[in-house]
Amino acid sequence: MLSPLEETLLSLMMVIIMFGMGSSLTFKDFRLALRHPQAVGVGFASQYMLMPLIAFLLSRVLNLTPEQTVGLVLIGCMPGGTTSNIFAYFSKSLLSLSIMMTICSTLAGFVMVPLLMEFYTQGIDDAFRIPPDQIARLLFVLLIPTLIGMWLRRKNSNIGAVIELMGGILGAIVILFLVVTWVPRNWRLLVETGWEVYAAVILIGVIGFAFGYLFSRVLRLNPQKARTVSLETGIQNGPLAALIVIMTFADETQQLILLMPVMYSLFIVINSTFATVFYRRWTRREELARDQAKVEPA
Amino acid sequence: MSNAQYYNKKPWMKHYRATRTEAGEEATIHHLHDNLAALIQAAGQNYRQQLAFTTCMPNGMNGRLTYGEVDEMSDAFAVYLRECVKLEPGTRVAVQMPNCLTLPVVVFGILKAGCILVNVNPLYTKREMEHQFNDSGAQALVIVDMFVDKLESIIKQTGIKQVVVTSVAQWFPPVVKGVLKLVLKHWNRVIPKHQLDVDTIDQALKKGREAKSVASIDVRQYWQHLARSDTALLQYTGGTTGISKGAELTHGNLISNLEQVDSVAGDHIEPGKECILTALPIYHIFAFTVNLLAFYHKGAHNILVPNPRPIQNCQRAFDNYPISWISGVNTLYNALLNEEWFTVYPPPSMKVALAGGTALHKAVAERWRTVVGSPIAEGYGLTETSPVICFNPIGQERPDCIGIPAPDTDVRIVDEQGEPVAVGEPGEIIVRGPQVMKGYWNRPQETADAIKDDWFYTGDIGVMTEDGYFRIVDRKKDMILVSGFNVYPNEVEDCIARIPQVQESAVIGVVNDQTGEAVHAYVVLREESITEKDVIAHCKQELAAYKVPKIVVFWSELPKTPVGKVLRKEVRAAVTGD
To answer: What architecture is the B479-576 domain classified under in CATH?
Structure first.
């Protein structure tokens, strides 16, 4: 895992990144995202209904140990991660919707996480609480910098655009950093881990993307919103899951459970990068197609 | 009453009275200046402190110039051309760039220097560039850095002796400019390296300012003597006959057209208060006359969008500026109306949208009025006529109509012999007015073919209604003759366009042994769920048999002009192989 210093540094970077992401937004963007409020509802449902179920079924299918099951289901129950916003930005999905979903799901996670954990892993329910300071942290990392970015954009769109660009570059660097430093440091873990863990942490992301998308399309969200929900569903707050594990368990058990969030956090970055490249091309094609499409009669 | 008398009576005159209360029998025109330089300088002085141009990038980055700055910079550029490059009055200077801050500065500078402007499409191929530089005899060129690599390989074959290079990010705030240039160079890779000996636009202006102060030059001396009959602009047009030729537009042509626009739309334009979105390229005559000249003259704030595709690129411009006017073509309005951000939050300050270039579809016009809640007025014109010939009076627009002729303009519909046809009959539109070009540059034969007895033959087939509104039927040269019957491709294309799965089509005539010509349709689909037979079956239901396409071919796209007009000529060339 990351050292405390790195954690703090990462949070700080996240603040700057969200500041940049915020600079790409206007209040209109949020109002547009809210024009179909069901999108937030759909996201909520896919986050808290689909994901825990997928995680649970995956553990059954892959025959995971009880510890690994707890770890995987915990990931399934987590709210959306802040990195989902970076990927939403790069994939040209609806950043405003993504941010709103992250905030809503985290607030709801306060109640939902223990409830779901109770349901899927009976007996050890009470331990799985999101520490309250995490909410404050989220607001600090996500909401406030976004709002400041938006305000700045309104004041001066040149400064806003430059900060957006810087935030984007920093976002890419952070993601690259996570991947590049993680592998050499944890190579022993990577070698010793069995295939079913790999399968579980990779699949939960991929299946999350796919089901998030399909689910939203079935519920008639437009493709761009569906892609946003898809990313939000697949990308869970891995570090938060790790934190909860560390606070809840000790010794051997802790290490066994911890393996899942840690492995997940690594692979979701890789998964999401692929999804982002794919979605970005898709968005571009749609933009060009819309340019050409016929106007429906008034 | 003979047909000619009916047209001479100008039945459209009565519609002027409704729009201009003070106008009498003849719509009055305010006579402005004697040349464009004087007009430009006057606007620069009148609105000195106000914002003239803002370039707005897709991410909202922007750079801007005030009227005072544009005035001073274009003066410096005029001095640079005359004193440093040593150009004679009347020398052609080419400008090749997308919409950006440099464009108005150099265009105005060229006009103030008494030189002749040559607008060049930046997307031209090397061969087209070479042709246009040589045909116009341009001696200097201002070009955007993105396209210098094309120039490098052909410059030796041209008479260009001085090149000035600029960038889309020119005169943006320093950090923003730096960032933008880095992105364009290393991320988008659109700025090629080159070995040419050039001046940057900043160097050119610096030299101009120095020369100006050393010899204490009054720029006025370059343009004071220019008269309405002097040539201001060579605007190249492909026409339908292949090789592109330069329409020679005088100061008088362009100023007259401004006056004509002004006398009809002027009441809706508040001097110094408007904000116009320029998403169409200014190297095209529509945006050149309307956006650049007419609205600069009116002290408007002009928002320049370098590249409106995808249309998303215009979103920040609508977010950040109180757009009150917009000029566009059907495809642009169509694209805007397909965007949620536009339809949910249409620009609240929008007054009038001007449409031209190609026919404005009825569905688009209606939707625009519903969504935006303000008029969209279609006009008609050609490069050769500076460009406006007809437009719909604002507030009295009619669907599928190009409106009524501009004040001081005579329009007739004539047959093959040049005789006026009866009202309601189709025929070629011919036009006479102060906006009609001097001729094609160095092409007396083509000029004589196009302008006969002061009447310019547009090559468009049109119809006039009883009360003087005009409607376009088609291009004359595109008309198809099937067994002696006239088929207008537009009619067939409209019919095909009503198939929901069709995006667009081009209909042309191809030589046929039995019928002389046969109708062929090249169709682009939105959804590939229909066959060629379905298209023909649909046409059979709606059209007379001789109009139904004999052959339907599905294509993935159609060749188009920069403003989105389908080029039937190129479709024909691709099909027949020449």
So the answer is: 2-Layer Sandwich (3.30)
Angle at B39 between CA B301 and CA B246, to 5 degrees: 95
What residues of chain B lie within 8 A of the CB of A160, using their CB?
Answer: 60
Residue A289 within any structural domain of the chain: no
Q: How many residues does chain B have?
A: 578
How many angstroms from the chain centroid is the CA of residue A209? 11
Farthest-apart Cα atoms in chain B, separation: 76
Return the amino acid letter for A86.
I
Nearest-angstrom CA–CA distance, B71 and A191: 70
State the average pLDDT over residues B7-17: 83
> Alpha-carbon distance B521 to B168, whole Å?
40
> How far A160 CA sits from the closest chain B CA (Å)?
8
DSSP labels for A2-66? --HHHHHHHHHHHHHHHHHHHTT--HHHHHHHHTSTHHHHHHHHIIIIIHHHHHHHHHHHTT--H
Using the structure block, give the residue that is written with the tokens 């938060």. A240
- Kindly report the backbone phi and psi dihedral angles of residue B472, in degrees, each rounded to the nearest multiple of 5, phi listed first: -90, 135
Subunit contact B173:A158, Cβ cutoff 8 A: yes
- Determine, yes or no, domain membership for A295: no
d(CA B355, CA B374): 13
What pairs with residue B377 in β-bridges? B354
Task: Tell me which architecture the domain covering B36-226+269-328 has in CATH.
Answer: 3-Layer(aba) Sandwich (3.40)
Q: Which residues are within 8 A (CB) of A230 and not within 5 positions of it... i.e. 6 or more apart?
A: A208, A209, A210, A212, A213, A216, A275
Whether B235 shows a pLDDT value over 60: the answer reads: yes
pLDDT in tens, A79-101: 887 788 888 988 988 888 888 88
pLDDT value of position B24? 44
Domain ranges of chain B: 36-226+269-328, 479-576
For B362, the closest chain A residue by CA position comes to A297
| Confidence bin at B23 (pLDDT 50/70/90) | very low
Mutate which: A25, A28, A92, A158, vs B, most B CBs within 10 A: A158
Q: Please tell me the total count of domains within chain A.
A: 1
For residue A55, is it within any domain?
A: yes
Q: In this structure, are residues B509 and B517 in contact, taking their beta carbons and an 8 Å threshold?
A: yes
Q: How many beta-carbon pairs under 8 angstroms link A with B?
A: 88
The DSSP string of B516-553 is EEEEEEEEEESSS---HHHHHHHHHHHS-GGGS-SEEE
Cα–Cα dist B347/B41, whole Å: 31
CATH number of the domain at A208, please.
1.20.1530.20
B389 or A70, greater pLDDT: B389
pLDDT tens figures, B269-292: 999 999 999 999 999 999 999 999
% of chain A with per-residue pLDDT over 90: 19
B558 Cα to chain A: minimum distance (Å)? 12
Share of chain B above pLDDT 90, in %: 69
CA separation for the pair B428, B431 (Å, rounded): 10
Structure tokens at B19: 């729009």
ipTM of the predicted assembly exceeds 0.95: no
**DSSP-assigned beta bridge partners for residue B144:** B166
Boundaries of domain holding A88: 4-283
Residues 6+ apart with CB under 8 A from B187: none
Mean pLDDT of A139-149: 82
B340, B361, B493, B525, best to mutate vs chain A, most A CBs in 10 Å: B340
3-state secondary structure of B336: helix
Interface touch B310/A162, C-beta < 8 Å: no
B434: Cα separation from own chain's centroid = 18
For B180-201, what is the mean pLDDT? 86
Residues present in chain A in total = 298
Query: What's the CA gap between A208 and A229, in Å, rounded?
Result: 10
**Torsions phi, psi of B247, nearest 5?**
-75, 125
Lowest-pLDDT range, A217-231, B179-193, B425-439? B179-193
